[in-house]
Amino acid sequence: MALLDILLDKITEADLNNLISAGVPESPTIDYKRDTYGNSVDDKREFLADVSSFANTIGGDIVIGIDEANGLPTEVKPLAGDIDAEVRRLESIALSGIEPRLTNLRIRPVSVIGGHVIIVRIPRSFVPPHRVIAQNSGRFYARAGTRKYEPNVDQLRHLFIDAPHMLERIRSFRADRLVKIAAGDTPIPLGQLGKVVLHVIPLPSFADGRMADIVSELAKGTHVPLPLDEVGLPSQASVNLDGYLNCSVGGANTRKGYAQFFRNGAIEGVGELRSDDNVNSRFIARDLTNLVVSRVRQYLDVLKAYDLGLPVYIFLSISNAAHVVYRYADASGMGWHDSPPLSREIVSLPEIYIDNFDVDVIDVMRPAFTTLWNAVGFSSCDRYNDVAKWKGSSPYALWWH
């Protein structure tokens, strides 16, 4: 068994005992410590070196409160005292002693007979390398086998250039999906009119090309991405070749949409735009922005629930956009006008990078909305006021739809 295969919040005393009974050895992804790290300068530096070595390599867990012999766990040695204070102390050391800061480090105590075991979960970093800066150390660490080491110049160079390559793989995935969507290659039949497309993609999924067993993961919980469709339509879920599909079910005259949860962890939401004549499609500020913001928030919650990692890239696009217009009210508020059409098949808006699942989605999506409004001849999205603050009611009320 691998502890990393279990969501951190789901780890129990039984899982820790299984490490011992199964003889799970220390490895590049797990390290056992009988005692917690002390308060001396050397102890703190050791903790920071251990944490950064995992972050700079493939990630892993430091399990504090399990004794080991020759790398094999032997028995649980519960930690006593104020465990919450100890967790806060370790978090403070890590946050202030590593550069750049590790934003997705998590530390959790697990209750066991006689006290607690602390698990420090360090996901692989995608903005490496990280160095220890406490007490002016300035050292880099990586991990090989069960040991940490200081990488040489060539190894550091590889750490610096690896992350941009992963981002290119994400961009290529998104570009390929947009071409297929525009050509009608979608998991449910959609019309050839304009569509809004949303991709929410965790970078860790593209780190090594691994495939997540999304179907099995979904069986463990209830978090399912919602279709990008008209508010209130019923939906129908199923598994398919790419992973897990959730699509809207409506009558012949309703706009359809779907959410595809890919096996690599990416979520794709697609929804048809409104049309009056089956030739031109249109979007309205409130409807489009509310739907996009609510779905981005919900998709992020899904990724967080299944511990698919940070950072996450968000991409908003308009597909089949040649005849898509923006419909807006005139100055009197008594009539409507249409902008010139977007006049291109695919409109790809700027990517959004987040390193925290609890971001303000309204704020982070503003650059994408601004660019879309620029494309139809407006200086900014009219859902934001002159100081870039959201106008009107919160779209988060749409989560449950």
* Biggest sheet architecture: 8 strands, antiparallel
Strand content: 25-35%
Distance between the termini: 38 Å
Radius of gyration: 24 Å
SS class: alpha+beta
As residue ranges, the low-confidence spans are none
Number of helices: 8
The 3D shape can be described as elongated
Mean of all residue-level pLDDT scores: 89
Provide the number of structural domains: 2
> How many E strands?
23
Specify the helix fraction band. 25-40%
Index terms:
401 residues; alpha+beta; Methyltransferase, Cobalt-precorrin-4 Transmethylase, Domain 2; 2 domains; eight-stranded antiparallel beta sheet; four-stranded mixed beta sheet; elongated
Compact summary:
Helices cover 27% and strands 27% of the residues. With 401 residues, it is α+β, with helices and mostly antiparallel strands.
Q: How would you describe the overall organization of this protein?
A:
By secondary structure, the chain is of the alpha+beta class. It has 2 domains: 3-151, Schlafen, AAA domain (Methyltransferase, Cobalt-precorrin-4 Transmethylase, Domain 2, 2-Layer Sandwich), CATH 3.30.950; 161-400, no CATH class. 27% of the residues lie in helices and 27% in strands. It has helices at 13-21, 41-55, 83-97, 153-182, 214-219, 285-305, 361-364, 366-375; strands at residues 30-33, 59-64, 66-69, 72-76, 98-99, 106-112, 115-123, 131-132, 139-140, 142-144, 147-149, 195-202, 235-240, 243-248, 257-262, 267-272, 274-275, 281-284, 312-319, 324-329, 336-338, 346-348, 352-354. Strands 12, 13, 14, 15, 16, 19, 22 and 23 form an 8-stranded antiparallel beta sheet that branches. Strands 1-2-7-6 form a 4-stranded mixed beta sheet. A hairpin with a 6-residue loop joins β20 and β21. α2 (41-55) crosses α3 (83-97). The two termini are 38 Å apart.
